[in-house]
Amino acid sequence: MKLLSRKASCNSHGQDSSYFAGWEEYEKNPYDEVKNPQGIIQMGLAENQLSFDLHESWLAQNPDATGFKRNEESIFRELALFQDYHGLPAFKNALVEFMAEIRGNKVSFNSNNLILTAGATSANETLMFCLANPGEAFLLPTPYYPGFDRDLKWRTGVEIVPIQCTSSNGFRITESALEEAYQQAQNRNLEVKGVLVTNPSNPLGISLSRHELNLLLSFIAAKGIHLISDEIYSGTVFNSKGFVSIMEVLMNKKYVNSPVWDRVHMVYSLSKDLGLPGFRVGAIYSNDKMVVDAATKMSSFGLVSSQTQYLLSAMLSDKKFTKNYVIENRKRLKQRHAMLIRGLKNAGIPCLESNAGLFCWVDMGHLLSSKTFEAEMELWKKIVYQVGLNISPGSSCHCVEPGWFRMCFANMSEQTLDLAMQRIKSFADSISDSNNISRNQQHSNKNSRRKSFSKWIFRLSFHDRETER
Question: Where in this chain does the record put each Aminotransferase class I/classII large domain (predicted)?
Answer without folding.
Answer: 41-424
